[in-house]
Amino acid sequence: MRGVFHKVPLYWGLAILLFMLLFPFVNDTRSTLILLTQIFIFAIFAMSFDILLGYTGIVSFGHCMFFGIGAYSTALIFNKLDATLPNFLLGLGIGILLSALVSYIIGLLSLRLKSHFYAMLTLAVSQLFLVLAEKWRGLTHGGDGFTFSVPDIFKDRTSFYYITLFSVAAVFILLKLFTESSTGKVLKAISQNEYRAEALGYKSLHYKLIASVTAGVAASFSGALYAVSLRFINTNVFSIEVTLDALLMTMIGGIGTLAGAIAGAGIIEFLRHYLSELAMTYPIFERWTIILGFLYIVVLLGFPSGLAGFIKKFTLKKRRKEKRKREVERAA
Amino acid sequence: MEVFINLLVNGVSTGLLIFLLAAGLTLIFGLMSVLNFAHGGLFVWGAFSGAWIFKETNSFLLAIAGAIAIGMALGWVLERFLIRPVYGNHVRQLLITLGGMLVLSESIKILWGPNPIRVNLPGWLEGSYQFDGIIIIKYRVFVIVVGLLLYLALWLLLSRTQIGLMIRAGVLDKEMVQALGINVKGLFTFVFLLGAALAALGGALLAPYSGVVFAEMGMQYAILAFIVVIIGGMGSLQGSALASLIVGVAGAFMAYYMPDLSLALNMLLLAIVLLVKPTGLLGEKGSAV
What we know:
Chain A has 332 residues and is an all-alpha fold. Chain A is 80% helix and 1% strand. A two-stranded antiparallel sheet of chain A has the order 1-2. Chain A starts with a helix and ends with a helix. Chains A and B meet through helix 6, helix 13 and helix 15 of A and helix 4, helix 9 and helix 11 of B. Chain B: Belongs to the binding-protein-dependent transport system permease family. LivHM subfamily.
């Protein structure tokens, strides 16, 4: 376990976890808990996207398909079968298997392509899933969607809050282990210079496939939680906006750091919540997406490493300054 | 027979509209290897501004001219402020042009509201021609004629003029052209504006054709244009024209006989081309692998 927290400020992580564990005792208003639950779910999704974008350097514009596959698998199981916990695990398992399969096939066919082609192809395939969900009305009820009931433990806001909190923590630790493993190091090498990694004898396609299946499985998990949190599903889970969310969260939080993805999810969901509340008084905020779009562009042009990169740079500078001060003192 | 001819006309006219979008994409890619995800945003801006000007002034020609002007202005902003700063970095180009797309299509919703807008045909293009019981809608013929003329104009521009020569040389070997003292960046701006104008024109022509415009349309047509550009071969104008016709006609027939599978067909075409000939039908440069 030491390896996990090797570089992360361990105490900070534990402090935040503790704070979040105690939070429902301090403030248990429904809307706050729902907002935080939503943040946790999207944090998992953003982390899964970051495995692709930040750690491997793959740009996928179709990540919503795994989110949607996970969401629909769980929703359909609850729709056809009883709302019990084993059935949730069944739906989750089906979603994860399907996502792994789909990401494997797509990766095998297209990960050899150059970045633009891969981005475009994933976008097109995700649109294909959207069309499939819209046309297969017998199963999905198309754009109208359907509601379903969930086990009691998911209905209670506080217990669901804890479930999602533990899920984030578990996914964070697992993905951290993954990125710190030897496979993760190869991925990092591929993101920096694919040709060099290949020349050193690492088959980049093989490693990229591992990354894409891992990301697909994690995204599917977050999709399943999302469906359960809403107790309703429609074809929106396959829309390009879901992919854009992941993109915004990882970019604003800082790519290449899992903590950044979580922070990004928090920032975006918070902004969304407050901006849509503002929209009730000032109708101009009704289209808050454009504000996020501008923010995204500004971050991309001005702070390409996001919030996490900004903090890292700041602390590094501070540390360097302190070091220099100490050296000056010693010299004196 | 009547159905066949009608579907063919539909397919060719849709194909030519897609070509207007794909032509800009393929030239921009060929010259600077920039894949512009915001291209669909210019297209949808062309559609909305064209429809709006037409409604206000009742002049279709003015609407087209206005749409092109707005498309070029937006294209200039995109090129200057989004694409130039990240030039040479593919991943950031992809990310930032997608952001541009988001802003363009959201601003449509702010200006014209989130609901689809109905668009009427201009009076002089309403109605249809009739030959031996075969009915052909006038506006589709108009789109085909305009599309073919534009293809011809682009072809002449590329093959007969000085600037066309520079563009073709730039597509083949950018560094060499630069070494010969030609301002490739300026050339790129020109091509980008040309592409933006074509995209906006395509949008303005599409609006009365489909009768209704909506903000999400940009992404839908952009995806079709991407598919066309890959099938035809990146950087090849002829390839794009050929692939546009294939996608348009195949789409029209599929939409009639198996409507649920029309997008799947395009994906299938794309997958086959990528697996069998990754450079596309007529492309030589810019292989996908």
